[in-house]
Amino acid sequence: PDEIAEWHQKASDPIYAFVEDICEANSEAWISKDELYDVFIEYCDKQNIPRIGIESFGRALKNAKNVHVVFKRRGPRGVQKTGWLGIQLREKEKSEIDMEV
């Protein structure tokens, strides 16, 4: 029964599925908004899930039940990047991305 509920949750909520499959919570971790969204788009394409825009992705990520994130700026003034505090890619995903770059 739990497996069926999990499958249904993933099928009906692509953000939930993405966080469960690709990410992990880490209160100290920060990832750029663009990098996380790019990985999400790759995930959608591989899983045959409809894509959503970056703004919708951000809103959905803030409201996700399976991770708590905060939108945060990093870097020196003038060249700051925006990103997410509280989430990181799993080690396997990081190494696959590093190989693609």
From TrEMBL:
Residues 11-77 form the DNA primase/nucleoside triphosphatase C-terminal domain. The lineage of its organism: unclassified sequences, metagenomes, ecological metagenomes. SUPFAM superfamilies: Winged helix' DNA-binding domain. This is DNA primase/nucleoside triphosphatase C-terminal domain-containing protein. Gene3D superfamilies: Winged helix-like DNA-binding domain superfamily/Winged helix DNA-binding domain. InterPro entries: DNA_primase/NTPase_C, WH-like_DNA-bd_sf, WH_DNA-bd_sf. It comes from marine sediment metagenome. It holds the Pfam family Pox_D5.
